[in-house]
């Protein structure tokens, strides 16, 4: 009987992915649809995608599916045909990565969740299908130029830190669940203004725009396909690019450049940098921004404590790990910087709370 989950060690899969010459395409998609039996659909999807050598992270819930994956180039035709065999996938938009070396995922993981995006909302209290008006890149640029328009970044603070639209309001939130009430409170006196929401691929705005309309906002818009589709249309149609910096992505790449500007700083030395990394100490694994110079000097770690820890023998690491507190246990993503004593101190953000970017 075929196993419907990965059984190979993570380090082996990572090495295999990085050494593989296979050409792959990174893409994402989502679909809000009522699934009666998410577990059954999950197993069907795993069988179908595993046969096509698809890698990636997929969430399935009663409300639909949210997928970030990579597909071998030689399997793309079969992959698209397989999607068309599922009724509610027909005509669904696929968001293709802007910068893609095919090294985005190293295994296939499909999980059943209560929701495809954790939002903390009671979906029965409002109409989740009553979302905002969808905008293409050109319409977004035109509406964003209106003085009364309010542009809202519905992503987390560590995403907007490395890239965002001009004049966007960026919530000081580590999760989408935290961002929603912040946005409603921040904009409570602007319910009659045009509110333009955007996120990575569009899925968060589908729910957020419906929630804002439920909260009394009169003119709610969302960027169709998110930053990923916006970047594609800007390039294809030769439009002005109003997005500055890097689009954070939730795969091994951790980011793709949408413009040439670097708007963020290394969390260790303060020099311009836009590359998110995870601390090389697996017992820490903190997400932070690090420049190449600091990566070399700190052994790809977030602190001297972690850099020292990874040089110890496996036996010594095992002995002291339980009594050692690393930054990954102390700080939320991106809420820190390195002090002169080579340890992190807690900060709010490099930008102010409820800030308007630029």
Describe this structure in words.
With 358 residues, the protein is of the alpha/beta class. It has 3 domains: 96 residues, Alpha-Beta Plaits (2-Layer Sandwich), CATH 3.30.70.100; 121 residues, Rhodanese-like domain (Oxidized Rhodanese, domain 1), CATH 3.40.250.10; 71 residues, no CATH class. The chain has 12 helices and 18 strands. It has a 5-stranded mixed β-sheet with strand order 4-1-3-2-5, covered by helices on one side. Strands 6-11-10-7 form a 4-stranded parallel β-sheet. The protein is globular.
SS element count, helices = 12
- How many structural domains does the protein architecture include? 3
> At the first level of CATH, what is the class of the largest domain?
Alpha Beta
Helix content: 25-40%
CATH topology of the largest domain: Oxidized Rhodanese, domain 1
SSE pattern: HEHEEHEEEHEHEEHEHEHEEEEHHHHEEE
Q: Globular, elongated, flat, extended or rod-shaped: what is the shape?
A: globular
CATH architecture title of the largest domain: 3-Layer(aba) Sandwich
Reading side by side through the largest sheet, how are the strands ordered? Answer: 4-1-3-2-5
Mean pLDDT: 87
Radius of gyration: 21 Å
Percent of sequence in beta strands:
15-25%
Q: How far is the first residue's CA from the last residue's CA?
A: 56 Å
Oligomer: single chain
**Are there runs of 5+ residues with pLDDT below 50, and where?**
338-358
Q: How does the major sheet shape up?
A: 5 strands, mixed
What name goes with the CATH superfamily of the largest domain? Rhodanese-like domain
Which class best fits the helix and strand makeup? alpha/beta
**Number of DSSP strand runs:** 18
């Amino acid at each position: 009987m075929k196993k419907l989950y990965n059984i190979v060690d993570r380090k082996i899969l990572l090495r295999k992915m990085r050494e593989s010459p296979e050409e792959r395409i990174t893409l994402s998609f989502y679909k809000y649809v009522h699934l009666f039996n998410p577990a059954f659909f999950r197993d069907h999807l795993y069988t179908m995608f595993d046969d096509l050598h698809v890698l990636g992270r997929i969430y399935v819930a009663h409300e639909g599916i949210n997928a970030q994956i990579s597909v071998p180039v030689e399997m793309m035709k079969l992959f698209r045909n397989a999607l068309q065999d599922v009724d509610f996938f027909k005509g669904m938009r696929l968001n293709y990565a802007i910068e893609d070396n095919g090294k985005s995922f190293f295994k296939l993981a499909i999980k059943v969740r209560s929701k495809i995006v954790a939002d903390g909302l009671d979906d029965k209290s409002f109409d989740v299908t009553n979302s905002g008006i969808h905008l293409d890149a050109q319409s977004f640029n035109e509406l964003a130029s209106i003085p009364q328009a309010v542009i809202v970044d519905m992503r987390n603070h560590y995403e907007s830190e490395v890239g965002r639209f001009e004049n966007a309001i960026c919530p000081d939130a580590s999760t989408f669940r935290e961002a929603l009430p912040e946005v409603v409170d921040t904009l409570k006196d602007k319910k009659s203004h045009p509110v333009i929401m955007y996120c990575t691929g569009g899925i968060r705005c589908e729910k957020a725009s419906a929630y804002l309309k439920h909260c009394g906002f009169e003119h709610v818009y969302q960027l169709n396909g998110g930053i990923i589709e916006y970047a594609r249309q800007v390039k294809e149609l030769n439009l002005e690019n109003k997005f500055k910096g890097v689009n954070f992505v939730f795969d091994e790449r951790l980011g793709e450049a949408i413009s040439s500007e670097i708007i963020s700083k290394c969390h260790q030395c303060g020099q311009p940098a836009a590359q998110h990394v995870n601390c090389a100490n697996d017992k820490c694994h903190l997400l932070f921004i690090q420049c190449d110079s600091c990566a070399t000097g700190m052994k790809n770690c977030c602190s001297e404590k972690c850099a020292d820890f990874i040089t110890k023998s496996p036996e010594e690491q095992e002995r002291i790990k339980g009594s050692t507190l690393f930054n990954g246990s102390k700080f939320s993503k991106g809420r820190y910087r390195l002090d002169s004593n080579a340890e992190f101190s807690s900060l709010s953000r490099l930008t102010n709370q409820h800030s308007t970017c630029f």
